[in-house]
Predict the 3D structure of the following.
Amino acid sequence: MFIREPFRNSAAEHDIGCSSKFVEREVEPVPLERFCEFVSPSPAELDAFADATTCRREFKRRQAITRQGDPVGEVYLLRNGWVTSSIEVDFSRCQLVKIHLPGDIAGLPSIALAQAAETLVAVSPATVDVIPLERLGRLFERAPRLAFTLFVRSQQERVLLIDHLAAVAQTTAVQRVCAFLLHVYRRLKLFGQCTDQLIRWPLSQEHMAQGAGLTSIHVNRTLRELRRKGIIAREGRSIRLLDLDRLSELAALPERAFVREPPWLISVAETSPAGEANPRRQKPD
């Protein structure tokens, strides 16, 4: 199946919106793996989500998608690559608050504001699908279960931020770095994006320092210590977790077990205009 849609080859036109040029391309599946963590979207819901996107933008490594203080008018479905979310402090320091992975929707916290609260930067070549806020609103009306799923995901983010705050405020440098590595590993593993405990690692030590509340020198020293103890190994641009049990012990963070298909969320599909009745919940004739 093919569709005609606005398409752009790069982010060069970021300041003037999406290109008016149309190209014919094959429809690609929407990467909603992270929505599937809580409930499996129906085909109609997937179609509704695909219809909410307007164009695609590609970003080079270290290129900004949006900056703190920019007007807020859209969010971004990350199709591939890694994107950091950070907050600038005193115009000279940054606090990394989240690493967006494929399937994430970046920019959602800022929809409550007139100006963006965060700066989004590609730390590897990245591709995003643009979702204007007015289309996001129509998506929620057309597929309310997706809206509820986003709400549940926002609570998941809150739990992870609680863990991150506890780690930064109450743990040692070694524990913080271990918690950082373990957090990324668990997110990648959940959707089969990490095999043999090997993580393709586009982040610099400065990124890790910004996320863990340390200096780059301290992060470097801590990584050397973990390598010396045989807990991790550096393999080119990747990091291999050699001793996951020991890493988990040092991280001193609980492994959260998030609810899969909570009954209250499944029941929404029965009345959703875009959802299809769940066959597991249909009564026999």
Summary: The CA atoms of residues 34 and 200 lie 19 Å apart. The chain is about 35% helix and 20% strand. The chain has two domains: 1-158, 171-266. The two ends are 36 Å apart (CA to CA).
